[in-house]
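Figure 6 in text form: structure in, sequence out.
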């Protein structure tokens, strides 16, 4: 049997060398890990900044389109209520009926300018306004600022509608007054029109002419109109 005796000093030097190599390897791994983390963080920042800009621009464009759509509908609602107020304050039946019997577009000609103003106040440009129905507006806007450095401008669309809740009504796409249980757009819609026609000869002709010159107001109409507006969620 052979026995080997190891010098204690040699053994210590060997162990120190092994620990030094292990420390060097660990340091190399740490440097590599730090490098990978720096790359990942850089890539994340590069991606997140434009993405954050796009999300913010999208939110701003939605706000601009919603505001523009409600502005158009609100403008139209105010004009319809104003027309109804003029009818109520009219001194005679002729002045009363002059406020009715016209299409919605007649009362709301300035809706596009109002929508454009609200879009501009929110940093956007109105690109289109369409009357989808007599009492509904659809708008399209585009943000004035670019999305990051892409050269693109965030677009958005929104729709709003009017609801004739009191006083006013719509008949054959024309604005009328709600009275006597029906929607009337002219004096010809009054229920007593048929009764007048039962009169014969000269009496009927004189009565018709008198009512044409100064038609009677209907009965049972509201003293104030109410028109509500709301966004349409698509």
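Output sequence:
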């Amino acid at each position: 049997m052979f026995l080997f005796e190891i010098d204690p000093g040699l053994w210590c030097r060997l162990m120190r060398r092994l620990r030094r190599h292990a420390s060097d390897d660990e340091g190399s791994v740490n440097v590599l890990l730090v490098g990978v983390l720096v790359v990942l963080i850089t890539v994340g920042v590069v991606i997140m900044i434009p993405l954050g800009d796009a999300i913010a621009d999208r939110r701003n464009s939605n706000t601009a389109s919603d505001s523009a759509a409600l502005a158009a509908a609100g403008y139209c609602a105010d004009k319809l209520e104003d027309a109804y107020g003029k009818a109520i304050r009219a001194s005679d039946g002729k002045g009363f009926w002059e406020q009715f019997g016209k299409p919605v577009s007649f009362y709301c000609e300035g809706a596009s300018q109002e929508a454009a103003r609200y879009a501009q106040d929110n940093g956007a440009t109105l690109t289109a306004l369409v009357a989808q129905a007599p009492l509904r507006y659809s708008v399209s806007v585009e943000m004035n600022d670019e999305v990051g450095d892409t050269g693109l401008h965030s677009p958005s669309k929104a729709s709003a509608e009017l609801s004739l809740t009191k006083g006013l009504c719509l008949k054959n796409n024309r604005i009328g007054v709600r009275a006597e249980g029906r929607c009337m757009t002219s004096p010809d819609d009054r229920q007593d029109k048929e009764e007048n026609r039962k009169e014969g000869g000269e009496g009927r002709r004189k009565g018709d002419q008198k009512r044409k010159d100064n038609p009677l107001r209907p009965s049972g109409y509201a003293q104030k109109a109410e028109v509500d507006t709301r966004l349409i969620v698509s």
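Caption detail: The two ends are 94 Å apart (CA to CA).
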